[in-house]
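ok so i was messing around last nite and threw this chain in just to see what happens. nothing serious, just curious
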Amino acid sequence: ESQLVLATPNLVLRLGNKANNKTITFFLSSDFERMQWIDSISSLKQKCNLPGANTINSLEVTAFIVAMQKGMKTEMGSYLMRNSNDESLLVGDLYMGVQGLEGLEQADDLYICVEVDSYGHYFRKATTKIICRSQTPLWNESFMLELEGSQNVRILLYEDKERPLLRAKHILKVAVYSACIREVERRGMLEVGCYRVSGSASDLAKLKKAFESGEYTALIYAYEAEQLLREVDIHSVTGILKTFLRE
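result:
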């Protein structure tokens, strides 16, 4: 029973058809395996050149899966096909150090994932930090990987394409924080309940509109918004700060 739990795939891969809004869901065991499926699907789409509006039945889905599996080496179910002559599976702790990487052609945002198999299925066990814009990334990280029914280790290099950038909305918030804190330090340090007491709803609406409608360049905010901060009650100043923090 425990082996069945360990072997249960839990990574989702969904294939959808926009023409008829139908979706087929696959459950896979590792990121590596999921990328193999995606690459195989892309390759088949280029070869077959099927129109997107085509509908498929269950037999065609089965044939599609078989065609993709021919080009994959996922080692699925290898534990079930073992015999008495095979080497014993490993159980225990594996200590691994990830140092660095050389020989890259261009600088990218990179990180490494380590996957270990357990009874024929691979699971992610460790992930390094992201090294930004480097051709020779250095991680110098150590991990302890738990082995249970293991034979193989995969070391996978990924490019991070989802790293958040500092966009205009974030720049706006930084400007609001700076302006409000300066105003609190100027005339609100001795005010009782400075951040506890609520400000005027009309003043808060005016401040929010002034900040969001101003033209911003880098961290320079609209002059009108700063002047309005000086005119309203200190509780309205802290109120607009709390509003932007909540957002």
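not much to say yet. Confidence is low (pLDDT under 50) at residues 74-81, 164-168, 215-221.
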